[in-house]
Amino acid sequence: MTRQGSSRLPRLEPAGLDGWMVRLFDAIDEANMPWLTALARECEGAFGDRLVDLVPSYTTLLVIVDPLRLSPGEAKTRLVEILQRLRPDEAATDAPVQELPVWYDPAVGPDLSRLSDLAGMSLEEVVACHSERHYRVFALGFAPGFAFMGSVDPRIEAPRLTSPRPRVPAGSVAVAGQQTAAYPTVTPGGWNLIGRTPAVLFDRHREGFSLLQVGDRVRFVPIDRAEFERLGGDTRPMEAPR
Fold it and tell me: What number of CA atoms fall less than 13 Å from residue 237's CA on the CB side?
């Protein structure tokens, strides 16, 4: 594997009796994605039906194998061989763009006004900052179909809430630090809510279940309330945190 970065990387870290955590990077960067995509593809070919699961994240890939058919030592040997020949998957750079319609409004995005104040920007400027970028899906987790995406414009970065909300409506679009996401189901959550999408992000009857997959590029498209309602969006408002 030849790339820019720390001489200590990549690293293999044991993850129980059936897995290895492959750490390719230390910092979040969209440029990581072609390497992580290539690593996942190589693991699928090298481990075949002995592979149980692959769990990608911003900087790592968790590789889980069948411990009854492959020892940790054998798995490590295969991973070392993969890393020695690994090259980035250039096709990952051109992943298709998923467009998510969003109604940006304080009624459904109760933190929108606060982010506006923190950034010293108008509501319209905050919406433009968030919606004019293409985001990369780095990982799925927390809840089924919850896609961690990055990176937001530094001007609208904001820390998580001090006290998470006990109930965040499905479809809520949010920002936390460098990341953005849309809540696929009703869950607790501490991210800053700035709008809501009518898109169905998780469906047990859909192939792959999640609308968004790791490696996808996503663009949030502003719509008005009428279009949001036409698309089946839930307009019930939320209160800002106290």
Answer: 9
9, two tokens: 């990387």
pTM over 0.85: no
Q: At 13, phi and psi to the nearest 5?
A: -120, 125
Bridge partners, 149 (sequence order): 137, 180
- Sequence-ordered list of residues with C-beta below 8 angstroms from that of 127, at least 6 positions apart, any chain: 104, 112, 194, 195, 222
Peptide bond into 163 cis (omega under 30): no
Whether omega for the bond prior to residue 10 falls within 30 degrees of 0, making it cis, is: yes
Tens of pLDDT, residue by residue over 18-76, are 999 999 999 888 888 889 989 999 999 999 999 999 988 889 999 999 999 999 999 99
**Alpha-carbon gap, residue 56 to 54, rounded angstroms:** 6
How far is Cα 152 from Cα 174, in angstroms, rounded to an integer? 11
Kindly list the structural domains of the chain, giving each domain's residue range(s) and its CATH number in brackets, ordered by start: 11-93 (3.30.1360.40), 95-230 (2.40.100.10)
Q: Which residue has the tokens 């690593």?
A: 39
